[in-house]
Specification:
- The protein is of the alpha/beta class.
- It has helices at about 25-40, 60-75, 95-110, 130-140, 155-170, 185-200, 230-235, 240-255, 260-270, 285-295, 300-310; strands at about 1-5, 10, 15, 45, 80-85, 85-90, 90, 115-120, 145-150, 175, 200-205, 280.
- The chain has an eight-stranded parallel beta sheet with strand order 11-10-9-8-5-4-3-12, with helices on one face. Strands 1-2 form a two-stranded antiparallel sheet. A two-stranded antiparallel sheet has the order 6-7.
- Strand 9 (about 145-150), helix 5 (about 155-170) and strand 10 form a beta-alpha-beta unit.
- Helix 3 (about 95-110) packs across helix 4.
- The longest helix is centred in the last third of the chain and has 17 residues, at about 240-255.
- The radius of gyration is 19 Å and the shape is globular.
- The protein starts with a strand and ends in an 8-residue tail after the last helix.
- About 50% of the residues are buried.
Length: about 325
């Protein structure tokens, strides 16, 4: 278990991504995945109000609705639920009015009284940052949100957010959600991790498996033979360098009796300030490898080997 930043949120070091619920996982499949995740000790679920508005016929909020229906059906205890604001078609941006309305809508869809961890999903250059920071702090004061966080923010903007919150005496963010994995390292390690270390923030990286590339499933840029809505996003990493990373993950996995997926997550979990990588599953049989990645311990030599083979990638540079 690991604490998120300065909060009291104590979680298994893996977050189940809800981006696929209502997209590549329908309601029944989502329920099976959530059941398997929690049965295996998982207790941290990540979603967003915008998931999955990009799917034809969807309007946004589908993931939260499915999770809410599952929570109502199963009545689990001890879970940490994280969601985000700014990308729902009806709740774009981070104005104070929108943040409040979006939070209330998320609470209704999830069927909970309080959101454990609430992220500003994407920076909003049109809204003064002070207004957003104040709005998030008010949600905490009013009991709608327990802890705040930011996603997809630059280090400079995170620093400004923290400064404004300190000056106002309002809630400080406890976590940062960046795009970070073995094939996308540079910007996070150069700017976000040092900032997180300075302010005691936890990283909860998304795209932990590079849209599925770091499962080892995609070893060619030709996706014609792969039946997956995410194949294009994964296949772009299948460069000679990317495939060398997969080969090394496979070699290390064989030494542990572990999958490429599990080793990828174990490496990410071992990086400074990383508390819980986010990984999603579209099928219930994928959940076991995700959970194994939260518990697999790699040796220092294995971590260094993966550091070296992934140190630079044309995709992530």
């Amino acid at each position: 278990m690991t604490l998120l930043g300065s909060s009291d949120l104590d979680v298994l070091p893996l977050a189940l991504g809800g981006n696929v619920f209502g997209w590549t996982a329908d309601r029944d499949a989502s329920f099976e995945i959530l059941d398997a995740f929690t049965a295996g000790g998982g207790d941290f679920i990540d979603t967003a109000d915008g998931y999955s508005a990009w799917v034809p016929g969807n309007s946004g909020g589908e993931s939260e609705t499915i999770i809410g229906e599952w929570l109502a059906s199963r009545k689990p205890t001890g879970l940490t639920i994280a969601t985000k604001v700014s990308s729902h078609p009806r709740f774009k941006g981070l104005s104070a009015k929108n943040v409040r309305a979006a939070a209330e809508a998320s609470l209704k869809r999830l069927g909970v009284e309080t959101i454990d961890l609430y992220y500003a999903h994407f920076d909003d250059a049109e809204t003064p940052l002070e207004e957003t920071v104040t709005a998030f702090g008010q949600l905490v004061t009013d009991g709608l949100v327990r802890h705040t966080a930011v996603s997809n923010y630059s280090a400079d903007r995170i620093r400004s957010w923290i400064s404004l919150a300190q000056d106002a005496g309002t809630a400080l963010p406890v976590a940062v959600q960046p795009h970070y994995n073995l094939v996308h390292r540079n910007d996070v390690e150069e700017s976000i991790i040092p900032l997180a270390q300075e302010f005691g923030l936890s990283l909860v990286p998304y795209y932990a498996l590079a849209s599925g590339f770091l499962t080892g499933k995609y070893r060619s840029t030709d996706t014609s033979a792969v039946d997956s809505a995410r194949a294009g996003g994964a296949a772009k990493y299948a460069t000679p360098h990317g495939l060398r990373i997969i080969d090394e993950l496979e070699r290390i996995g064989e030494a542990h009796g572990a999958s490429i997926t599990s080793v990828s997550l174990a490496w990410l979990r071992s990086q400074p300030t990383v508390a819980a990588p986010i990984a999603s599953a579209s099928r219930v049989e994928q959940v076991a490898d995700l959970l194994a990645g939260a518990r697999l311990e790699l040796s220092n030599e294995e971590l260094r080997t993966l550091d070296d083979v992934s140190a630079w990638s044309p995709v992530s540079a």
